Write the structure tokens for this entry.
Amino acid sequence: MAVLVLWGKHAQWALWYLGNYQEYSVSDWLINYEGGFVRRGLLGQLLWEAYQMFPFDVRKFVLSLPFAFSPLLLALLLRIFYKEKWSPVVLLSYCCFGATFLSSSIRRDYLMLIMVYAIFLMASRWNSSCRKVYFYGTFLLSTIAILCYEPIVFIIIPVFFFATKERLLVWLLIPVILVIFLSKGSAETAQAIWQSWESLFKNYPFPSDANDSMGLGVQALGWEIVPTALFHLDMAYAGLEPSIMSIPLILYMLAGVYYLITHLNVAVLPFWKIRNFSARVLSNVLIFHTIAMLPMLTFLSCDWGRNITFICVSTFFTIHFFPDIADRFPQIDRLTHRLLTKMDCCRIFNSPYLYTFIAFTIPVPISEAPRLEDSILGTFILLLYS
């Protein structure tokens, strides 16, 4: 009941969200091709073309997207959990949904994960049938997804490389990836994109006195690569204020995520059918995706919570569509054996009370690494909302 209340409060927050065009969650969707070809400009170009034909409040439309993407992604995950006979309790944790459900702060995240599901579904059918229509479909969907949100390459490309019968798909996508990452944009490009939306700002001002400065999402196109990478690294790791509780919280978060994912069926819902599963498979794929996401966890992003969600949800998708991939990593398998052997020696890890406690107290922030003061403040805010 408490979780439902929290979800309802976050839905209410999203409905009355006061984010203007300068907010990253809004302005990131405004990136288009009016200033030239740039990364993640496809969705913004489609919005721009639609606005030219039928003017509408793009800001409200963007802020309403989580109400479509969040339930759809949750439905896809529940479908997988039902087929695999996994307990869905972990989905209530912050590392999967938690407080980000129906929240506009996730930007394009849930849309990207829905695209991952569609791509893996198509790729798995190509992998099993070798029909060319599925191969071309996978390539087309992957290309569209990369044009929409380029971080998806850190999820799909490693899986394609290790899980598909042929690596031709990877080699065909490499030119697409290079073009996207090299089309970073510039300050002039960002200015041209922002000016292309002038009629939107004039017809749908919100607030009217805040539209002079460029939105952060568009402004980021003009940021230089090296300073931006160092900024992300500083925000995610080096810039943490000295605190005796920072390291313990980080270790608790990482160990907690590993425990929740590898011991899915410890906490069981009474109406949900489960069956025994291989914790080894979950562990191998989880570590695999963590390694694949290292660029996002260091130089390309400082958003711990969002990246951890990418890793966890991608793990579920990968195991469901490519269950044999866990056997491809002997080095990871040895590490998994050591970790799970030590955990099996402690009976407390089989306690549903411990599992539920960790699921709802794990300190996964939206950005940066968890700190004691942030975790206490976040917990207080959630209790205040509920």
